[in-house]
Amino acid sequence: MTSNNTRRTVVVCGAGPTGLMLAAELRLADVDVVILEKRPGGTDDRESRAPGVYARTVEIWDQRGILESFTGSRTGRYSHFALLPVGVDLGVLDSPHAVMLLPQARIERVLAERAAALGAEIRYGHAVTGLRQDEEAVEIEVTGPDGPYLLRAAYAVGCDGGRSTVRALTDVDFPGTDATADVLLADVSGISRDLPGLKLHPFPFVRTGRGWMAVSAVAVSPSGEDVLRFIIGDSSRPPVRRAEAPSFAEVCEAAAAVAGIDLSGATPHWVSRFGNTTRQAARYRIGRVLLAGDAAHVHPPFGGQGLNLGVQDAVNLGWKLAAEVHGRAPAGLLDSYERERHPVAARVLLNTRAQNALMAPGPDIDALRTVFAESLEAPEVNERLAGELSAVDVRYDLGDAHPLVGMRMPHRELTTPDGRGTSTLRLLERARGVLLDLSGDPGLKGAADGWAARVDTVAATVTAVAATGGTDGPHGTEDDLAAVLIRPDGHVAWAAPRNRPVDLRALEAALHRWFGPASAADAR
């Protein structure tokens, strides 16, 4: 890498969903990106890993025009909390999406193709071995197929998983708790779905005095076969602090001990293990080094929130880091990444700890599960958990009294004055800010001209509320809004109600806060 492009280059360490999504976001903003991935072959199609994504991640892909790449994927309406007998109905969300079922391998393949098409360089088989930084750049030691070399860049982002090398090299505290359990997982075929005492619908889950076992149909298995996934938490097994997968014999032994089920005649396609380690990095930014995804937070996978959390980290960080690289970021913009995303991850850690506790054996937990399941039948409890699991209810504290500010902008179908159809999601495809004028207020015309190179101004009327379930959003209908300023990540930076004159000074302050000072060159 030559020194003359160092100041415009970001090195992303890790080519999982978080790193690949971040690389694409940076390329949309014309930042040079090199992705380093220690796996020599990249994605392993034999590993199904995360089986799907929730509404907010699907919305993000929709707003960037990626969703069509997942055409043909199955969708669902329900999730679970601690595999209670009452599912969480995501159909109540104010979103056109709920759950999309697809294997992580396909997600990584699509995102890698997108990042590369946008101009990111992906280097498989290149491992980070050292890192140092000064006031001007980050220097990264790398070992590749042809030996060691150095990379020098403006910033580096660790997206390299729970055992992050980047995090270790920056000496960031990673407080939390180590694993107290060893949970085994196997995707298998060649076994009957009519196992005694076990139903596949709605949530097949067995708890005994020895532990628990969950079974699901892996309709999205990379093998393409009719596959069942067995997840077994055997309380008699000590925690395992190693990354090696278990043998299939270990899985069979645990299934027999916990649930009395014989898996020995099945054909395994993928076996793995996980624990309930729960940790979060004390800081997400260390000078010119940042952390995202599992490098910043690890937790039990209960509720399937991890991949979603990482992709959403990437979309929050991408536009802010790009503005910093290009020298147009207002003061504190890059630091707002940690300020906004750290509490979101902390909440996910909290709810996965709660799920972990609810899945433990014992009569006291039996009683707690019964009470919790009964509570989940109440619509308000279901709605709250649906919003939390899907991340649709995430609200950043932006210091504004308007209830929509800090929330993601709800999906609405729009019509522009020239009759063109669009939506609040499609307006964000270029990862730029959007000032959406919903009232035709002449006072808004030209209000954002000084930010025209960074913010698109669009006049439109709402033509449809495209929600999976409910009709109006949690903060009132779109009829209440005269105008709204949307950040590139889809979250609302400023909103003006219809029932009072638009405060143009407040709009200007919001534009300056998130996009820097106005520019006469932009206004021309």
Can you walk through the features of this model?
- By secondary structure, this protein is an alpha+beta fold.
- It folds into three domains: 204 residues, FAD/NAD(P)-binding domain (3-Layer(bba) Sandwich), CATH 3.50.50.60; 94 residues, 2-Layer Sandwich (Alpha-Beta Plaits); 112 residues, Glutaredoxin, CATH 3.40.30.120.
- The chain is 26% helix and 25% strand.
- The chain has eleven helices and 29 strands.
- Strands 8-2-1-12-21-20 form a six-stranded mixed beta sheet. Strands 15-16-17-14-18 form a five-stranded antiparallel beta sheet, with helices on one face. Strands 26-25-28-29 form a four-stranded mixed beta sheet, with helices on one face.
- It is globular and about 70 Å long.
- About 2% of the residues have low confidence.
Task: Outline the fold blueprint.
Elements: E1 9-13, H1 17-28, E2 32-37, E3 52-54, H2 55-63, E4 74-76, E5 78-79, E6 88-89, E7 99-101, H3 104-117, E8 121-124, E9 127-133, E10 138-144, E11 147-153, E12 155-158, H4 165-169, E13 176-177, E14 183-189, E15 205-208, E16 211-217, E17 228-234, H5 248-259, E18 267-274, E19 278-280, E20 285-286, E21 289-291, E22 297-298, H6 306-325, H7 335-358, H8 363-376, H9 379-390, E23 412-415, E24 421-423, E25 433-437, E26 455-459, E27 461-465, E28 481-486, E29 492-497, H10 504-515, H11 520-523
Parallel strand pairs: 1-2, 1-12, 2-8, 12-21, 25-26
Antiparallel strand pairs: 3-7, 4-7, 5-6, 9-10, 10-11, 13-19, 14-17, 14-18, 15-16, 16-17, 19-22, 20-21, 23-24, 23-27, 25-28, 28-29
Helix pairs in contact: 1-3, 1-6, 6-7
